Amino acid sequence: MRIRAAVIACIALLATLLSAPARATPPNATPPADKIQPALRTQLTAKSVAPVAFWVRFGAQPDLSKAAAIDDWKARGTAVAEALQHAAQSSQKDIRAQLDAAGTSYQSFWATNAIRVTGGSLAMAEQLAASADVQGLYATTSYEPPTLDKKTAAAKEAAAVEWGIANINADDVWNQYGDRGAGITVASIDSGVQYDHPALVQQYRGRKPDGTFDHNYNWFDAAGTCGPVPCDHEGHGTHTMGTMIGADGIGVAPEANWIAANGCCPSDASLIASGQWMLQPTDLAGKNPDAGRRPQIINNSWGSEAPSNDPFMEDITKAWAASGIFAVWSNGNNGLSCHTSGSPGSLASNYSTGAYDVNNTIAEFSSRGSGQDGVTKPNLSAPGVDVRSSVPGGYAYASGTSMAAPHVAGSVALLWSAAPGLVGDVDATRALLDGSSADTPDGQCGGTDADNNVYGEGRLNALALVDSAPVGDTGTLAITVTDSRTGKAIPSAGLKITGPVSRERTAGDDGKYSLPLPVGTFSVAASSFGYDAGTAQVTVTAGKTSQVAVRLRSLPRVTVSGTVEDGSGQGWSLYAKITVDDVPGGVFYTKPENGRYSFELPANASYSYKIEAVYPGYRAGSVAIDVRGKDVRRDVSLTVDPDSCVAPGYGFAGVSTDFDHGQPAGWTNNGWRFDDPYRTRNRTGGNGGFAVGQTPGSPIVLDASLVSPALDLRGRKSPAIAFRQNLHSLSENSDVDLSLDGGTTWQTVLHQTDGVQPERTVVPIPQAAGKNGVRVRFHYWDAKYNTYFWQVDDVFVGDLTCGPVNGGLVLGQVSDRNTGAVLNGASVQVADRTARTAATPADGGVGEGFYWMFSPAGRQTVGASFVDYQDGSERVQVHSRRISRVDLRLSAGELSVTPGAVTMDVKAGGVATARFTVRNTGTAPAKVSFGDRQVVAAGTSSLVAGSNRIARVPGDYSPLALARDALDTKGHGSGTPAVGPWVDLTHYPTRIMDNTVGEVGGLVYSVGGIDGRLTTAKGYVYNPSTREWSPIADLPDGRENAAGAFIGDTFYVSGGWGPDLVPSKQTFGYDRRTDTWTQLADAPDAQAAAGRAVLDGKLYLVGGCSNACDSTNVRRYDPATNTWDVLADYPEPGGHRACGVLEGKVYCAGGIRRGGAISQSTFAYDPATNAWTKKADLPIDLWGMGYTESYGRLLVSGGITTVVSGGSTTGAITNEGFSYDPATDRWSALAPSGHVLYRGGSACGLNRIGGSARSGFTPVDTAEQLPTYGACGEIDVPWMSVSGSPTTLAPGRSTTVTVRVNAAGLKAGVYSAGVWIGENTPYLAKPVDVTLRVR
Fold first, then answer.
1. C-beta of residue 1258 within 8 angstroms of C-beta of residue 338
2. N or C: which end of the chain has fewer CB within 10 A?
3. Are 420 and 414 in contact (CB under 8 A)?
4. C-alpha span between 468 and 171 (Å, rounded)
5. What is the mean pLDDT of residues 961-971?
6. Which UniProt keywords apply (predicted)?
7. d(Cα 1329, Cα 1335) in Å, to the nearest integer?
8. Is the pLDDT assigned to residue 39 strictly greater than 70?
9. Measured at the alpha carbon of residue 1089, what is the angle toward residues 1087 and 1090, in degrees to the nearest 5?
10. Which residue out of 171, 179, 190, 357 is catalytically annotated?
């Protein structure tokens, strides 16, 4: 009777769902014209438009909220499906009749109440929009097909389980709960699955007990590429399925079953069809639907790079939830910037996953939030870097949030298997996932320590998740572990809980741990290094929390101490790292100035520890000790590695030469190059410059000789020639020759014709022992082909016997004299040697701003310099074989402004004045200037002061056009703290990069660029008063990386790559008063990515790219005559450089040229002489940066620089910024941006709009401003004048600035402006806000 009653109840609820009126848009609530979404209308009104596919969505939506009350799995799913089908049938019938009558092809769906029209016109769309049943018409959406950037792996690795499985403690769930996901069916919408893969075949729901297969209800070929048998041509779906349920340690829930659809991603229709099939699977013929066979969990490792506001997939996921299906989504691989979550994972209704690596560090590629309507995204994070799983035919490592999401799906399978009462309870499951994750603070993109837009709720923990499941009568056990003598918490103590069930856990940093347990009596054993084990008994009561304290007795301790010294002749104390084996937290450091160390260990035990010098070139040492009741002292000597001889204060007896500064003095050369002419980069294993023999190609046959000066080897007993080389050879001759008579006669001591991989080559020359006038020649001859070359670097001639050099060590810290803060990155010089201060995060005893270097003995000057600080120095006596500590404090100006804001009340037509004082409270002179400022309206954004860190993310970054680049190269960043008062503006209406940006009157205009898929002609204007972007007239044609700027009220835009990826000569002018474009005179040549500047009312374009970045052309456009001039060539070829006008000249910096060489150079163009002059180099090589001129300085921010990653030199995207002052010919640091981007648009402000956040073309919608730099020049606020003149304030001195307002012609109201304060200090004073209230 109970069964019959339950069935009757289900039938009653089903009837209620079917009879409930579907929610619909009220008749005529939206005008028909407005129902056609803008993106679709643009497609339908395009010139020469072909029939366009589009979606018709209907307003009728059934109320599914009561479905959760149906306990029977099949009945619940059937009720949801039939309610949706009923709503679709009743609301779609009239439109379907119209389409049938017109002979139009379409697909009808019920899981989302929508029809996809295969091809239609604007007239058809307008006719359909007139129906009261239609809610809206939408453009189709493209989703990124899942690709697998994989590394192959062995079938079975050494680890018992993969790192991700162990990281989330899934193996502990197996062992402690006996739970492996049995009884749960997971599904995947992906690229398919290799169903007979050894790691997956046993779990396939279509496998029958006799080993045969039935694919009905278990496989949906949405893509039409596999037929009736599951397949996977890409591998992505097989990989994600392996992580969910794979055998042999690759899967989270290896006893769960699986089914699949290959709906991702031929089209959005295939995804919708897959989602609909999951609600009510069918047989292979698409017949006999059965909601009882739907999966409990669906993994979705796919999405779009651009956000999407179409509602169709959202309808599907809400229907899944109503039917009890838990869906997991990847959050996207568009990081490093904020607001990069991909759709549909970004939707509030979807549970999405970020990715972290084996070190629990968020992956650089992992997309950040926020998501839809500001919701925190991702929801949580899971392992997603170098995840090993199944692929067709084998196994492979892959990375992405696609790899992270299936860890969550598998964990939900474990949870629901352990607690069947939770099956179908989506809200409760989300709450348990959130509550059990490990909080991981990261404020980069907003949120809290417990829930932020980088990690979400934190890192996935399957064990804590299952621990929190409501299973039977349970209570909570709360454990605290403390020191029995002091009462202090003991962090990370091991816990063993035995009783009705057994559990093993680890206490937190606060010594506490809580977990649910079944009722009963338990024994709790706690252990920690350095303590005796302790136990306690406790009884767990249903529904209550039982507290238990375990107190551990500390073991007796002794002190281990000593010193670490050099043992190869110098004898000085060594800064060294000491690692004690098998001791938690057993890493200690010596003091750099005296080499002393001291730490405590529990007595009555044996230990061993390793000693490694922080300085390079020393061999590690080890110590074994037997600790009893007394303190132990061990002094240790470390010896230098004689083969490398790179330890400070040591060297070989001979002459060393590198090529960092080109051809060395005294060397003669015929045919060798030092400027890397073919951009092969240093492949010898060395760093910096190198010498290369390489022919330009036929018909030139190269015969090149590079000859050393005469060398004195008297006193050298075993001389040799040592050098680094890389020889890429076909049959060319590469000889090393030796002369003992000053170069009159030669003998070959090394002959090479075969290729040589990067190596250090040593050639003994005993015949030169004791000789004077010895010369060495590198002879590269009979070289015919320019694809082959010989690189040489780091040449040494002499005895390869490593010995001490006369001198001592100098070390210390560099700090700010005003604040006491240490300065990382400061340059320290002694004699001809240079070092940089750096953080020592692993050694808290030394702190940051630390430097060390070897110095010759004698009286020396130790000097330090840092941007925007006065240089500092100190004279010191450097003693041979001793250490000298020299701490330097650098002075800088520092401004205080009082008051920070002024307000004046006047009558209409009246005038008023106010004053503020600027005082230099620092310790060095400060240059100060003032200018009008237009105030950004309150609430536009938040300052990111003090939180931005310098980031450099290695990857493969191309300067060329959209279709010529590979996508999705991942990288890893690193950074140090920096100060950054950047402001986030309202997000751009679309994701964008390579856009052209101009500023006039405080309004920011952006046109063209790449929106992630296409070269666009769209344009928008940003009004800081309303904080809104508004559309402007489209460019006449799409443009990527055009150059442009405002001159007066006209925005001039020239060049760029067109939609056909061909560079253009066309020039257009946009009149902002009439919102119209006019075609103007063509430029002399077709280029994209040119530097731009405006001088004397004329537009300058410098260099650029076509199919390569090798232009040196400089063009000048005169709007008055609509003509172009060709000027003196830029001194270096390339594009993507920064340009601006300073003191009547055009300054340009950085750029990239053919072959990938990045420039640091700065040049200035003088129109009076038509010539370029070399200026100070940028601090780093840089291209693709945002830039502008402001208050007499050239500002650059972001872009691509060069780093060494994995032992090789590569490009890296950075958020660093720099400012150039022509008065001092010096670059200084700008605050790092809050977003790590390149190839975005930029203009006065400094405003940066859009850009790409990683390798390839992955645009973002961010917009930001560095508010201290407000304009290209003075902005005239008509009702305000500022009396302050540029001045230099000595320390302690001040200046008073008068602000005068004139309300003539102003209506009653409140007016806002401000005064910019320009300065050459490292602190950046806040602008002074000015408020005028007119009565």
1. no
2. N
3. no
4. 17
5. 37
6. Hydrolase, Protease, Serine protease, Signal
7. 20
8. yes
9. 75
10. 190
In the annotation, is 236 catalytic? yes
Q: What is the pLDDT of residue 967?
A: 29
Tokens of 843: 């050694």
Query: CB burial class (10 A; 0-12, 13-18, 19+) of residue 710?
Result: middle
The residue to which tokens 């090789």 are assigned: 1208
Q: Residue 464 has which token pair? A: 């804590």
Distance of CA 1178 to the CA centre of its chain: 23
**What angle in degrees, to the nearest 10, is found between the helix axes of 73-102 and 122-129?**
130
Res. 1271: pLDDT tops 60: no
User: Mean pLDDT across the chain, nearest whole number?
Assistant: 88
Residues 6+ apart with CB under 8 A from 797: 654, 655, 708, 711, 713, 719, 720, 721, 722, 774, 776
Q: Among 1055, 1042, 1051, 1074, which residue's Cα sits nearest to residue 1124?
A: 1055
Residue 692 pLDDT exceeds 60:
yes
Q: Are the beta carbons of 686 and 660 closer than 8 angstroms?
A: no
190 part of the active site: yes
Average pLDDT over residues 1089-1097: 95
Q: What residue ranges define each of the domains in the chain, with the CATH number in brackets?
A: 2-139 (no CATH), 154-467 (3.40.50.200), 474-552 (2.60.40.1120), 557-638 (2.60.40.10), 650-801 (2.60.120.200), 807-890 (2.60.40.1120), 895-934+1276-1334 (2.60.40.10), 952-1265 (2.120.10.80)
Which uninterrupted H or E stretch holds 186? strand 185-189
Q: Tell me the pLDDT tens digit for each residue of 977-996.
A: 223 467 788 889 988 999 99
Residue 46 to residue 41: CA distance in whole angstroms:
9
Give the pLDDT mean for 625-631. 91
Instruction: Report strand pairing: 733-739 vs 747-752.
Output: antiparallel
From the CB of residue 863, how many other CB atoms can be counted at a distance below 10 Å?
16
Residue with tokens 């005038």: 911
Query: Are 431 and 144 a contacting pair, CB within 8 Å?
Result: no
Can you tell me whether residue 587 is helix, strand or coil? strand
Please give the Cα distance from 621 to 606 (Å, whole number). 17
- pLDDT (0 to 100) of residue 107: 94
Outline where DSSP puts E strands in 1082-1134.
Answer: 1091-1095, 1098-1104, 1111-1118, 1123-1127
Tokens matching residue 145:
């097909």
Contacts of 776 (CB under 8 A, 6+ apart): 707, 708, 711, 721, 736, 737, 738, 739, 795, 797
Written as one letter, the residue type at 1082 is D
940 CB-contact burial (10 Å; exposed 0-12 / middle 13-18 / buried 19+)? middle
- Is 402 an active-site residue? yes
Structure tokens at 885: 């500590």
DSSP letter (8 states) at residue 279:
H
For 1217-1239, write each residue's pLDDT tens digit.
898 989 889 888 777 888 889 99
Which of these, 303, 227, 295, 267, lies nearest to 107 by C-alpha position? Answer: 267
Among 191, 367, 402, 1228, the one annotated catalytic: 402
pLDDT tens digits for 104-146? 999 999 999 999 999 889 989 999 999 999 999 998 887 766 6
What is the pLDDT at residue 44? 85
Q: Contacts from 504-509 at CB under 8 Å and sequence distance 24+? A: 504/172, 504/176, 507/479, 507/481
274, 232 contact by CB (below 8 A)? no
Instruction: For residues 875 and 911, give the distance between their C-alpha atoms in angstroms, rounded to a whole number.
Output: 58
Annotated active-site residue in 215, 236, 339, 1136 = 236
The C-alpha angle with vertex 1201 and arms to 1200 and 1207, in degrees rounded to 5, equals 120
Token match 């990281």: residue? 167
The CA distance from 628 to 606, in Å, is 9
Query: Identity (one letter) of the amino acid at 633?
Result: R
Q: What is the pTM of this model?
A: 0.65
In single-letter form, the type of residue at position 1102 comes to V
DSSP-assigned letter for residue 1015: B
Please count the other Cβ atoms lying within 10 Å of the Cβ belonging to residue 847: 13
